[in-house]
Structures are given as C-alpha cells and as structure tokens.
Design a protein that fits this description.
7-stranded mixed β-sheet, globular, alpha/beta, about 290 residues
C-alpha cells in the first residue's frame, strides 16, 4: 500500500468524500481520471484511488489478448495495439501511472485484487466514503455496495435497460438497438440500478463509426458527465426511463457473432481511428442533461 493521502486537518468539512475504484488500464481509464479528478476536487474530497487488475469477463492478463486474437483476428489486434501505443506513448496524459497521478494530487493509492475483498470494504467504511465511482469489470457484492454512505456510480456504454453486460456497443449495433451512455447507481444486479444521466448518440448511425471510436468519445466525455452524475446522486435525483427500450443482457461475443457483425458493415476499429479527434459535448447539451 502506498499511502499519500490527506491528513485529517487537510480535509474540508461538509464536503462529500469520494473514492475511485478503477482497473489498471492506462489506455482509457488513466487519461480519463487525469481529467476527472481536478473537476471532482473543486467540490469533493477524494479519499483514495483503489486500483485493481484489468479483466475482461472471466479473462485476466495474457488470456485477454488471446481472446481478442481468437474472436476478432490479427488485424483488429494490431490496430488496437497501435492505438494503445499511441495513447500511452504520445497521448496527452501527464503522469503515466496511477501512482504518479495519486501522488500529484495527494491522494491515497491502494492496489488490491478485488473490490469485494474485506479489506476494501473495511477501508471504505473506515474512511466514511460517501460516493464510490467504479471503472472496473468486477460485479460488486452487497458488502461493498453497502459500504459507502450514499452510493456507487458506474458508467455503462449503452442506453439502459438495453444491452446490459459486456460489449454493449457491439450488441447494440448487431441487433439494431439505439446506443449511447448511461451513468447509473449500482445495485446487486448487473447494470440494473437507477439511472442518473443518459445520453444517446445519433452519430452512431454513421457507416464508419467503429466501436473504438465510440469508446474514445465516451471516455472523452466522461469527466463532464461524471460531475453531473454525482450531483444527481447526492440530491437523490434519478432519471425516469423514457427511452422505450426493452431490458436485455449480453455476454462476450463469439467468433461467429463477430463474423455476423462484419457482414452488417460494422467494425471494431478502423485505421482512421488513429487520427481522429474526440467528440466534445457542447455546453448547451451539458446544461440540458444537468437539468433533466
């Protein structure tokens, strides 16, 4: 454990206390939290960043790469590898590791194997955490869900209640389901908690809109939407489901699922994704979702 957290005298009375649970992902998660943490610190105390091994369903470590190769093939893996290299070597992020990010902001950094472990639950209770943001693939169990005093917030890249589970963008395109992003309160189900913020993407209908491009946009917009989501959670303001979509759940796609996906003209990634700029939400759209 690397403890560089605030002393009791440095905490601001009356401010909600936040913890960040995140997978050890330097491609999407680290740059996202580099941009999100300064926004959170304007209004909240961040008690700790808890980092867990990256996983994809039941797969961890090198088994994730083997699953990508088996399911999507070599060309997709090469493009994703180039994208990862570009972001980690030439991206705009400053710190290169969660340790450096935590040290810069004077936040405690803890590495553990699972957010459900008893010591993580104990840490959350001892530090009187109000809100936990999660960016992990683990399914949280009741002890850790009950530990924060207000709740847990998750980002899911779909218009809930549709496309719960893994690879929601893939399944949405394959089955013709409108897609977008939902920030929601986490409960004991899978992507079944009450929605805080939801945003659809009309541009997803573009023929050249790949899955990588979609997630690039989602994580670029994460900081602004996360601030709105925590405001709504602290106020107890949840969004009534009005998108008309049916509840659905999916797991990891198979090779045949991917073949069907390609036959419909969809792609996991494209070479052009390496050179595009992210989509930014206009201020008026942020104000609109803040008011919903």
């Amino acid at each position: 454990m690397n403890q560089v957290g605030m002393n009791e005298s440095e905490k601001t009375p009356g401010r909600a206390r936040v913890a960040i649970f995140v997978s050890d992902d330097r491609v999407f998660a680290l740059p996202t939290w580099e941009r999100t943490i300064p926004l959170l610190l304007d209004k909240y105390d961040i008690a700790g960043i808890l980092v867990f091994p990256d996983r994809l369903g039941k797969y961890k470590g090198s088994k994730i790469l083997f699953w990508y190769l088996k399911t999507f093939g070599l060309w997709v893996c090469l493009l994703l590898g180039l994208y990862s290299f570009k972001i980690t070597r030439f991206g705009s992020h400053k710190f290169g590791s969660f340790e450096k990010l935590a040290k810069h902001h004077g936040i405690e950094l803890i590495r553990r194997n699972s957010p459900n472990s008893p010591d993580v639950v104990g840490w959350t209770l001892e530090n009187r955490i109000d809100v936990v943001f999660i960016m992990v693939s683990d399914i949280l169990k009741k002890p850790i869900l009950d530990a924060p005093r207000v709740g847990v917030i998750n980002k899911h890249a779909a218009l809930l209640p549709s496309c719960g589970g893994i690879y929601p963008y893939f399944w949405g395109r394959l089955h013709g389901i409108p897609t977008g992003v939902s920030f929601h309160e986490v409960d004991e189900g899978i992507d079944s908690g009450r929605v805080l913020v939801q945003l659809g993407y009309p541009s997803v209908g573009e023929e050249n809109y790949s899955m990588l491009r979609f997630y690039f946009d989602v994580f670029n917009m994460y900081p602004d939407i996360a601030i709105i989501a925590i405001e709504k959670l602290l106020l107890g303001k949840f969004q009534i489901n009005s998108n008309g979509l049916e509840k659905s759940y999916y797991s990891l796609p198979t090779r045949q699922d991917y073949i069907n996906y390609r036959k419909k003209g969809f792609r996991i990634c494209r070479l052009s994704d390496l050179f595009r700029k992210p989509f930014d939400l206009p201020t008026e759209k942020l104000n609109e979702i803040r008011g919903n």
